[in-house]
Predict the 3D structure of the following.
Amino acid sequence: MGDLKLQNVTIAYGPRMIIQGLSLAVHDGEMVSLLGPSGAGKTTILKAISGLLKPDGGDILIDGRSVTDLAPENRDAVMVFQKPLLFPFMNVAQNIGFGLRMLRFTKSETRRRVARILALTRLEGLEFRKVHELSGGQQQRAALARALVLEPSILLLDEPLSNLDANLRQRMRDLIQSIQTETRMTMVFVTHDQSEALMISHRVALLLDGRLRQVGTPRQLFYEPIDPDVARFFGGRNFFQGRVENGLLRSDLGVFPVGRQDGNGHLRMATIRPEDIEIAPLGKSANGGLTGRIVKTNFEGSAIRHVVTTTAGELMVLTTQDRFAPGQEVALTVSPDKIRLFPKS
Amino acid sequence: MTSRPQYDVDARTRPGSGFFGLTFLLAPALTVILLLFGGGLVLGVVQALGYIPGAGQGELSWVHFTGVITDPDFLYSFGLTLYVACVSTCIAAALSIVAALILVSLQSRWIHFIFQIPLTVPHLVVAVAVVFLLAPAGWFSRAAVAIGLIQGTTDFPLLINDNWGLGIILVYVWKEIPFITLMILAVLRHSGEELLDVGRTLKAGAWQRFRHITLPTIFPALGAASLIVFAYTFGAFEVPYLLGRTYPMTLPVWAYKQYSDIDLLARPEGIATGIVIALVITAAVIGAQMLTKAARRRGIVL
Amino acid sequence: MKRSLAGFTGVIVICAVGIPFVPLCLWSFARRWFYPDLYPQAFGLRAWTYITSTAGTQVLTAIGHSVVVAAVTALLAVVIAVPAGRALGLYAFKGKDAVSILLTLPVIVPPLCVAMGLHLWFIRLGLAETLGGVIGVHLTFCLPYAIFVLWGVFSNYNPDFEDQARSLGASRLTVLTRIMLPMILPGISVAALFAFLLSWSQYLSTLIIGGGRLMTLPILLFALMGSGDRPVAAAVSLVFVAPALVVLLFSARYLGTRSLVGVR
């Protein structure tokens, strides 16, 4: 069973603290993404879970038992690296069957399992190819197969898709997701791509500066970010301050009903996502809403991004309507239910 | 090829820069090699086949080659040379694997530097030092007397100019271990660490990682380096000349003795012996290449 | 655990590498050293003064010859190897494999075979017992080694730099001297040092072509070992090994730790 718990894990590299007091629980059968910018320490965490690195503090438990003293070859967790790292002196079938041979499976059982995993990862026919004869995508699939064939309780994937082009990445993503759904294998998937994390995970753990900022379902992280950094990571902008009194948020953007809140009169941070601000030509509504002038426009294909300067500062607006241009005066409408009020710090 | 470094055949290798450009670049080198090396070999073969202008011998015949090969001393010399070369290569290769593994895990620049010293020391100097150390009146003999192990020079075991070529093998091992080790180390440093991590997460224990990952990774470099050492020790002259017995002597020593014999008629036999040495070495190199290719084709994972 | 292993290994390596130098140093400074004493009863500089004085002109001549032969061989080898290495490292052409084999043969075939063959011819040409002849025979194997080194250097060389310089208006000569040469200088140094050491340590080929008349350090050393004058032999050994150690220090300081891979 693949129950994983990290308790207060600390990892330092010399004087530098890479991971500080990280606690995370991954339940059996879950696909959890470890999300964060490059260099945030995500690979380090995976290495600690796999056993390739020893944490300087804290504990790691698999199925309730501490594994910090177990060597990687004795843990029921297998890691797939960012580069395929297939053994260049073996062919594909030998590579995939490597772990089974190390665990002393019989030849026939090895052959059977390898054949099954070749079918699952769509590598049939490539058994006897040499590693250098494979394409990048095939190599990555072979590396994945090499780990999957061991049927570990926990699979650790270190950004396995970042070296692939967009098309291949999508196909591999689907493959991994379908395997996870089928086998109910616990997976920890490291990525720096936030949309990827939102796409495939049951839960997302966002890591910034070596600390876990927020753990939750994709929707929770997207719609209910716990602080501006988290919001910004998922493309949030337009941070502003306001005072909450009797269920009303008073801010430069306007006055909005936000329901009962603790702490009357306190200053609170809030945000509204660019796609949640409605933009219209000036003159349409005269009810004293927010107005401004467009200073910059970026055409992004599926949407258009405007930077609008208003009395409340600069706001970023994302819209699918392509009828505004820089210099134009516009009216902006913010609906209260789209405002995200950050918890009091 | 044996001593050729690994190359990237990438887009930068352009198709020939134009015939005249390339010829101009390669001509001096090819001329020198063809003239001196090629010429030397050809002239050697010709002389060994009996043609010595100015000495009244103008016909080609195999008499010198047959003379050498059917000489009863030939087999002894050949066997001795083969023995010394094989034993030196095997011991050096085995110890180099150990040394490389230790060095890669220690990553000490000082030890790495000291380890390189033997590379530049001439074989002859090492042989001289071995004489000073291991002769019956050498330093180790004196140390043995000092701690009471032996009484005098006659009690000290024969370690140089002996039947087993111990002194010779010792010199070769001292010189060649750093050579082989550094060739292995280059490979280990480059790709060893990551593949070992992969092995560990794929449930391979320490011995399994060594046998199934480290050994196959270093095998090409180890094989090439060992082949070079074998070829060198088989054809080397000065160390067996200084540290070997007067009989039997290694093939290169025998070749020279014949060549410099007062009897001018022994000269072609010396050259013929030299050609035989060259043939044996070339055969060994070609044999090793073919073996490697065959093994790779069969998918034999070492 | 790791630190004690490092210490232990360090000690073993230092002992193993240093032990040949101990008797050489002791004997070269020995005035009287009889069996079974562990170190000389009396020290002195006889051997060293002998080497450097007029009584030891043999030694000075030998040193001079060794230096000249090795230096000229190294120079010639590098000058010829640079264009050859460039051709092999930068271009793919028909017959490249054949050239590669042609270059490998002199490396695996022992010098003695070639020297014996060349000897007669060199006698005819008047090259026997001359420095030129010895340089010639040394070149047969020093040149291929140098070419291999430069082949490797040029394989990692990016000719785009030259194209860039040309497009900025540099002449061909300027490109060669101001762009290519500085970039391959480490490689040239390695090749030159390699060739120098190879020629410096040569014994048999020098003996054959030199006819025993042309004195170089290894030939002198052999003769001294035969004569039984251990102190002088030890001193000459140390002189013989000195440039090798200088080469090592130079390459470690300026060329990095990987540069000597392949030196034998």
Notes: The first strand of chain A starts at residue 4 and ends at 13. Chain A has two domains: 4-233, 239-341.
